Amino acid sequence: MMKQLLICLALFGFVNAAFAEELMTFRSELNQVRYQSLIKELRCPKCQNQNLADSNSGISVDLRQQVHNMIETGKTDQEIVDYMVARYGTFVLYRPQNTPATFLLWYGPFILLSGGVVLFVVVLTKNRRRSCK
Amino acid sequence: MRRIVLFLPFLVFLVLGVVFYFLLGKDTQYMPSALIGQPVPSFQLVTLEGEQVKQTSDLPKGSYLINFWGTWCPSCHVEHPYLMTLAEQGVTIVGIDYKDQQAAAMQWLRDKGNPYTLVLMDELGQFGLDMGVTGAPETFVINAEGKIAYRLQGVLNAQSWQVIKAYL
């Protein structure tokens, strides 16, 4: 029973790995790692919330192929990302760029957090003063 | 002071209410093209008849539409009659046969009529990639200066034409 379960689980892992994956050959292990991380960070422009690695839409297949080609022809990661942004906009980035437009996105949580800390300290000191009286 | 603080949640509610109200009914799928304001990317594509290689300089002068279509695309069937209507009204449309078979595409134009002044084949989808296309049909408005002015994802019909017209 246990053994069968383990086999099932192992096969399930195999199915997952095979999902949305074309047969691709890479010139080096490093290139393959770069490919995997790039298609995880780039968003499918057709889908609302999937990265290139998870999507099977036609455009994702094409873009994965494009990423593969660019890696194999010696383009840097930055060049590949710039290429995608030039065509599909910053929408394709799962990690937003640090620009004035995304200031609140990056620093908003910290601003809110420091506001909360200030409020906390104010309330605390007020209460202490009251209890001292 | 205390009183005002008590009203804070209500104020937050009001602000959020106004924001959400204005977002109601907006198309969340709408994505402006990253190429707005830029010239058409350079290309070298073969005409559908397979006889000539065309490049950017062969594109029409003045304003026109670039329409990505394919015989494999169901929405393109829906869109086609309206493209015919536009062509009759004198709108210049360049067709890009996107990731398609030549024979099937030629048959399609014979059966349904050809609304395009020029049809180019993008078999591998490379030009589509350069234009930031995510599927078919997609229609780009190119203004008189040769710059991309608007991109429509989805079917071009009487309703979307009202928006597009203004960019021509």
TrEMBL record, chain A:
Residues spanning the membrane: 104-124
Query: What is one Gene Ontology biological process annotated in the Swiss-Prot or TrEMBL record?
Result: cytochrome complex assembly
- Domain (CcmH/CycL/Ccl2/NrfF N-terminal) spans 8-130
What are the GO cellular component annotations? Answer: plasma membrane
Q: Which UniProt keywords apply?
A: Cytochrome c-type biogenesis, Heme, Iron, Membrane, Metal-binding, Signal, Transmembrane, Transmembrane helix
Signal sequence bounds: 1-20
One Pfam family, please name it: CcmH
- Give a GO molecular function annotation for the protein: metal ion binding
Of which family is this protein a member?
Answer: Belongs to the CcmH/CycL/Ccl2/NrfF family.
| PANTHER family registered for this protein in UniProt | CYTOCHROME C-TYPE BIOGENESIS PROTEIN CCMH
Summarizing the function annotation, the protein's role is:
Possible subunit of a heme lyase.
Q: What is this protein called?
A: Cytochrome c-type biogenesis protein
Q: Which organism is it from?
A: Marinomonas aquiplantarum
UniProtKB/TrEMBL annotation, chain B:
Mainly resides where? membrane
| Keywords in alphabetical order | Cytochrome c-type biogenesis, Disulfide bond, Membrane, Redox-active center, Transmembrane, Transmembrane helix
Q: Name one GO cellular component term.
A: plasma membrane
Q: Which Pfam families match?
A: Redoxin
Which residues does UniProt call coiled coil?
Answer: none
Q: Which compartment or compartments is the protein found in?
A: Cell inner membrane
Q: Where is the Thioredoxin domain?
A: 34-168
Which SUPFAM superfamilies does this chain map to? Thioredoxin-like (SSF52833)
Which InterPro entries does the annotation name? Periplasmic_diS_OxRdtase_DsbE (IPR004799), Redoxin (IPR013740), Thioredoxin-like_sf (IPR036249), Thioredoxin_CS (IPR017937), Thioredoxin_domain (IPR013766), Thioredoxin_ResA/DsbE_sf (IPR050553)
What's its membrane topology? Single-pass membrane protein
What does the record list as GO biological process?
cytochrome complex assembly
Instruction: Cite the GO molecular-function annotations of the record.
Output: disulfide oxidoreductase activity
- Transmembrane ranges? 6-24
Entries under PANTHER family matching the protein? THIOL:DISULFIDE INTERCHANGE PROTEIN DSBE
The family annotation for this protein states: Belongs to the thioredoxin family. DsbE subfamily.
Name of this protein: Cytochrome c biogenesis protein CcmG/thiol:disulfide interchange protein DsbE
Supply the source organism for this entry: Marinomonas aquiplantarum
